[in-house]
Write a structure and sequence with these properties.
219 residues, Rossmann fold, seven-stranded mixed beta sheet, two-stranded antiparallel ribbon, 9 strands, binds S-adenosylmethionine
């Protein structure tokens, strides 16, 4: 996966490549899908949600420019795979999931893999995690009409945020840097994530296509 899919597509950060090589993606999907876990595609994880495509996980991780010292917020825990990657790249990861069954399962996976630097909260992550803010970096792993305002407020000066922004069918992955109180936005790639449902995202999950396995794929 690292040599054939990620490096050739422009993932150059050696720490990100190491993390992607070290975290066993097959343990974050149902056993029936384990033999497809290292294909470069999103896979269903139940609850009409997905584990994102490895290339997108690596691209978003690289975009945060982590050195190992950071406190990172992830919105959209899903399977926990992205959080486990972030745990290898940063000091502490705070991840929020709105579907309780997924949060519980991710917590069990972290216990099994002895991933200790991640804390999960079952909540509407569009509010961020005010008690633990501010964050050096924030990652949103569901598509939103705009970056939720509380997340901007909880990003440190000099902090980086990456989020898919657009409509329900397609988004553009944006890298946002907060500098001098202003936001500097750089588009990374087009993508299609499941929707961010919450007070500062989409209000309902109406309109989610029936097959989430085809989503989250970079076009
Ligand atoms: N990062 C995940 C992984 O590594 O498996 C994949 C995330 S999946 C593409 C998007 C996740 O965002 C889903 O699990 C969904 O339930 C969650 N989600 C959607 N809206 C949310 C919200 N307001 N707060 C927290 N999680 C949310």
């Amino acid at each position: 996966m690292v040599e054939e899919q990620l490096a050739p597509r422009g993932i150059t950060d050696p720490r990100v490549l190491d993390a992607m090589g070290a975290v066993p993606r097959h343990l974050f999907v149902e056993s029936a899908l384990a033999d497809r876990a290292y294909e470069d595609r999103a896979l269903p994880i139940g609850e009409r949600q997905t584990i994102s495509q490895p290339y997108i996980v690596a691209l978003m991780s690289q975009a945060l420019g982590l050195t190992g010292a950071e406190r990172v917020l992830e919105v959209g825990t899903g399977s926990g795979y992205q959080a486990a990657i972030l745990a290898r790249l940063a000091a502490r990861v705070f991840t929020v999931e709105r579907v309780k069954g997924l949060a519980d399962r991710a917590r069990a996976t972290f216990d099994r893999l002895k991933v200790y630097d991640v804390v999960i909260k079952h909540f509407d992550g569009t509010f961020g995690w005010p008690e633990e803010a501010p964050f050096d970096a924030i990652m949103v792993t569901a598509g939103s009409p705009a970056v939720p305002e509380p997340l901007i407020a909880q990003l440190k000066e000099g902090g980086r945020l990456v989020a898919p922004v657009g409509d329900r069918n397609g988004q553009r992955l944006q890298r946002v840097v907060k500098r001098g109180g202003a936001l500097h936005v750089m588009p990374l790639t087009d993508c299609a994530f499941v929707p961010l449902i919450g007070s500062y995202g989409w209000r309902t999950d109406r309109g989610t296509p029936p097959d989430p396995a085809v989503r989250d794929a970079a076009r």
